[in-house]
Inverse folding.
């Protein structure tokens, strides 16, 4: 917290340029994607998605081939080139940016099961934010999480911010910071947070009975074995993916009572914290990221800084855009039609501005900082 973000990025950029493994005289790996597989917007099976098509083809490419020089100038070196079947595309920039945009849409849709909408969004908190899906993973899914990590690194080297909306708990776990059992639980699953708080704040047995009766009315509790008419909860809870899990061995047979209510609340909290950390998935993501950028760099970054470096800002800052706009020869900032242009953009909503940026340069977000501050002849920003 003692070092400015810009300073960290400058150091990070130097390290990234010092760890380049594919030089200019090596041809870039090329993958071929079939746009017809995802025609109509509905992906019939996840295997047809751009994400899985790319993961399959890049699985045989050594990761050193994807470690390229940092973006600078108009059309930088990209980790790989993309050819769309049946389409003629000039240059490599547009199709690469379009690919990253499309992949982020797929990751945040029901077609791929790597990310899960956080439960809090059901009650309008952190709407549209995602977490890694916490479940035991197969070898194939592990490969996909590994590729997801590689994509984060590839986007950092290309300086193309990914339009991903992930909860802070994801970025915390990625940079190796511990989660806060209160703050992070509340962010991700406010209903479970409130449920746990109710059990923690009960002052007598009558309140506990009333709470169990309330839960029983929502079909979460069974009757107590000792007193058949008295509702009680058992040591089970729903996981984030919707399965009922036992919070301890034989949990289905252990009723929650006055003596063990705190143990019950703590067990639910630790279940959720374990699900938010998703150690198996995160290990695969970090391994993928580490094959593209040195993981030691993450020790200097806060979770928010890591998110900014990877995903940019989710809104478009027009002043930043104006400061980094290049005018063709013969055009002036004071020309009437240029002034009309900016005043039209000022009337746009954020959603319309994102669409405009997507139209202009095939990505929805612009980088948070600009390498042209570093001076040097070829540091015009990407995209100009």
């Amino acid at each position: 917290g003692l070092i400015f973000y810009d300073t960290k990025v400058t150091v990070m950029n130097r390290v990234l340029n010092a760890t380049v493994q594919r030089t200019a005289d090596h041809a870039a790996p090329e993958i071929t994607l079939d746009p017809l597989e995802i025609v109509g917007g509905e992906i019939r099976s996840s295997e047809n998605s751009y994400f899985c098509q790319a993961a399959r083809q890049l699985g045989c490419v050594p990761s050193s081939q994807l470690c390229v020089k940092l973006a600078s100038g108009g059309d930088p070196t990209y980790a790989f080139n993309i050819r769309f079947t049946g389409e003629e595309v000039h240059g490599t920039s547009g199709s690469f940016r379009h690919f990253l945009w499309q992949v982020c849409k797929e990751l945040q849709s029901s077609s791929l099961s790597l990310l899960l909408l956080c439960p809090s969004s059901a009650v309008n908190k952190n709407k549209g934010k995602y977490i890694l899906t916490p479940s035991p993973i197969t070898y194939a899914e592990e490969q996909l999480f590994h590729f997801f990590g590689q994509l984060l690194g590839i986007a950092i080297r290309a300086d193309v911010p990914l339009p991903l909306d992930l909860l802070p708990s994801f970025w915390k776990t990625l940079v190796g910071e511990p989660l806060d059992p209160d703050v992070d639980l509340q962010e991700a699953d406010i209903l479970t947070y409130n449920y746990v708080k109710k059990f923690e704040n009960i002052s007598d047995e009558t309140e506990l009975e009333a709470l169990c009766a309330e839960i029983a009315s929502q079909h979460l509790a069974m009757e107590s074995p000792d007193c058949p008419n008295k509702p009680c909860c058992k040591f089970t809870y729903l996981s984030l993916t919707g399965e009922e899990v036992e919070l301890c061995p034989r949990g289905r047979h252990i009723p929650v009572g006055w003596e063990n209510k705190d143990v019950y609340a703590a067990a639910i909290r630790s279940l959720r914290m374990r699900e938010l950390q998703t150690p198996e998935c995160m290990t695969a993501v970090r391994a993928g990221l580490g094959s593209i950028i040195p993981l030691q760099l993450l020790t200097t970054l806060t979770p928010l800084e890591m998110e900014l470096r990877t995903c940019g800002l989710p809104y478009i800052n027009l002043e930043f855009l104006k400061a980094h706009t290049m005018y063709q020869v013969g055009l002036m900032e004071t020309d009437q039609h240029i002034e009309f242009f900016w005043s039209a953009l000022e009337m746009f909503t954020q959603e319309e501005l994102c669409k405009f940026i997507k139209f202009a340069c095939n990505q929805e977000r612009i980088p948070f900082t600009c390498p042209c501050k570093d001076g040097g002849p070829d540091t015009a920003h990407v995209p100009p």
Q: What stands out?
A: Strands lie at 30-33, 81-84, 115-117, 130-132, 222-223, 231-232, 236-238, 244-246.
